[in-house]
């Protein structure tokens, strides 16, 4: 989300704490996080939540596709996928063909799809709807995010949650504490002979003075940080900064790319033992009012290409196997296509949960395509039920307290 759009979002959402912090007051460096990993390492038994926000309103009907439903085919004569084009999930549903890696996670029971997720009295404004999702307050505007309130209750340590973006999303702003932010930009060291010489400077030498040894250690720490956090992250971020006309389609609601870089950074932090329990990453571009099919499939392919290797990498370590990924968007799209080969703002949509701690499968009822509310899907699962489940099962928190008395949860979603 670009800075102008984010400032507007922060202002309209009413999350004043995040607005005050958006200029970078909570920004931390790799050294802050590496020091925390040494002083207070993440336990291999502590679960970690990674929240992936899809900005713009992802079209759920072309993500988890009811391709065999005649009502779907009739509503979207040019946008609909045919049954032989989707990746079969059973129950008459299939994944978008761009999600081949997630289909593999579905097959091994580590992908859960929560269907028909929304909130009462839906709002089709990007900013208001995203504020509702991030604050978990559908009825009234509140100045704190749901994970920000968890931070307040968890001991007020900002390193407990990290946004891998240059500014802080409202979901991570509490009343007394706000999460830290770590820009996705990696570190880049000299290459060639200069790089070899720089590496040599970080090696200890016998008989050197205290401050010489400290300087060498600092250089070695930088090189270690590049190994953990930088390198490919920096290169990918540079590649994705290049102008690309296709990337601008669907981006009117804000959000950027670099999801692969963000998740690579998160993976390095988890493996290094940084004591962060919640991370926020994002992918934008899902406001597909026109030319939807190609744009959305490209974005879902990017999502798949970032998430799948991240989950596979996390499975290789004890800490990584405690990671749970939650993927959501502020709303789905209208059931019927518009006149521009796209769809307009809608209501309910599917939500993904991924990880070894997740019990894969379908949760929640699939919304009807014929029993609609003003042309929109009727939500069958309250999004706060998912949050309550995550707060209790991943972060070990009192969901009812954080969610203003909401007691709902999704049975069986997480393994005990």
- Major sheet: 9 strands, mixed
Instruction: Tell me the overall shape.
Output: globular
Strand content: 5-15%
Return the string of H and E elements.
Answer: HHHEEHEEHEHHEEHHHHHEHEEEEHH
Helix content: 25-40%
Task: Assign the CATH architecture.
Answer: 3-Layer(aba) Sandwich
**Cα Rg:** 22 Å
CATH class: Alpha Beta
What is the number of independent domains?
1
Tell me which oligomeric state these chains represent: single chain
Mean pLDDT: 84
N-to-C span: 36 Å
CATH topology: Alkaline Phosphatase, subunit A
Secondary structure: number of strands = 12
Count up the helices: 15
Helix/strand/pairing category? alpha/beta
> What are the low-pLDDT stretches, counting only 5+ consecutive residues below 50?
1-25, 231-248, 251-256
Q: How would you describe this protein?
A:
This is DUF1501 domain-containing protein. Keywords: Signal. It is built from 15 helices and twelve strands. By secondary structure, the protein is of the alpha/beta class. The chain has one domain: Alkaline Phosphatase, subunit A. Strands 1, 5, 6, 7, 8, 9, 10, 11 and 12 form a nine-stranded mixed sheet that branches. A hairpin with a 2-residue loop joins strand 3 and strand 4. Helix 5 packs across helix 13. 53% of the residues are buried.
Features:
three-stranded antiparallel beta sheet, disordered N terminus, nine-stranded mixed beta sheet, single chain, alpha/beta, 416 residues, Alkaline Phosphatase, subunit A, DUF1501 domain-containing protein, 15 helices, globular
């Amino acid at each position: 989300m670009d800075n102008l759009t984010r400032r507007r979002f922060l202002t309209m959402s009413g999350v004043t704490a995040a607005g005050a912090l958006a200029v970078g007051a909570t920004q931390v460096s790799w050294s802050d996080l590496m020091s925390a990993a040494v002083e207070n390492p993440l336990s291999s038994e502590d679960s970690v939540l990674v929240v992936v926000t899809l900005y713009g309103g992802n079209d759920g009907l072309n993500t988890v596709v009811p391709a065999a439903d005649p009502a779907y085919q009739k509503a979207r004569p040019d946008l609909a996928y045919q049954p032989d084009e989707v990746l079969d999930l059973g129950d008459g549903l299939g994944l978008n063909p761009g999600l081949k890696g997630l289909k593999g996670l579905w097959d091994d029971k580590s992908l859960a799809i929560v269907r028909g997720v929304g909130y009462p009295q839906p709002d089709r404004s990007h900013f208001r709807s995203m504020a509702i999702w991030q604050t978990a307050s559908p009825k009234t505007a509140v100045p704190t995010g749901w994970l920000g309130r968890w931070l307040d209750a968890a001991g007020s340590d900002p390193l407990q949650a990290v946004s891998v973006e240059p500014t802080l999303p409202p979901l991570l702003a509490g009343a007394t504490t706000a999460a830290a932010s770590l820009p996705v930009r990696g570190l880049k060291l000299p290459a060639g002979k200069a790089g070899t010489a720089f590496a040599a400077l970080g090696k200890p030498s016998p008989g050197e003075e205290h401050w010489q040894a400290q300087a060498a250690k600092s250089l070695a720490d930088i090189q270690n940080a590049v190994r953990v956090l930088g390198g490919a992250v920096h290169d990918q971020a540079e590649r994705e900064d290049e102008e690309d006309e296709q990337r601008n389609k669907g981006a009117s609601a804000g959000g950027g790319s670099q999801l692969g870089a963000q998740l690579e950074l998160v993976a390095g932090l988890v493996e290094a033992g940084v004591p962060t329990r919640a991370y926020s990453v994002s992918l934008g571009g899902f406001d597909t009012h026109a030319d939807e099919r190609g744009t959305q499939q490209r974005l879902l392919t990017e999502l798949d290409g970032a998430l799948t290797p991240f989950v596979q990498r996390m499975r290789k370590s004890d800490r990584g196997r405690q990671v749970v990924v939650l993927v959501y968007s502020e709303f789905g799209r209208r059931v019927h296509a518009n006149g521009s080969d796209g769809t307009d703002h809608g209501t309910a949509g599917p939500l993904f949960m991924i990880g070894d701690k997740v019990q894969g499968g379908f949760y929640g009822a699939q919304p009807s395509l014929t029993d609609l509310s003003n042309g929109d899907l009727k939500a069958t699962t309250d999004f706060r039920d998912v949050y309550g489940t995550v707060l209790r099962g991943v972060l070990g928190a009192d969901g009812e307290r954080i969610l203003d008395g909401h007691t709902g949860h999704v049975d069986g979603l997480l393994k005990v």
